[in-house]
Design brief:
This protein has 69 residues and is of the alpha+beta class. The chain has one helix and five strands. It starts with a strand and ends with a strand.
Length: 69
């Protein structure tokens, strides 16, 4: 896993094996703006798979949302 910087204004949280974009959060409630942000990252990087991961979820599997474009 590596941090990936696309330019000064955009910064991915994690890019795994140059294939999967992960947006990491630790919040009570996931905001739809973060979903839109992840979709934008996928389009800009031309990747197809992304995960929005919320570490504050009571059960980890409920804190993971997968996006495929």
């Amino acid at each position: 896993m590596t941090a990936f910087y696309t330019n000064e204004a955009l910064r991915l949280d994690v890019l795994v094996d140059d294939l999967v974009v992960c947006e990491l959060k630790a919040v009570d409630e996931v905001n739809t703006i973060w979903e839109a942000q992840l979709l934008s990252y996928l389009k800009l990087t031309k990747k197809r798979l992304g995960f929005l991961i919320n570490f504050h979820a009571p059960v980890m599997k409920k804190g993971i949302k997968r996006f495929i474009i």
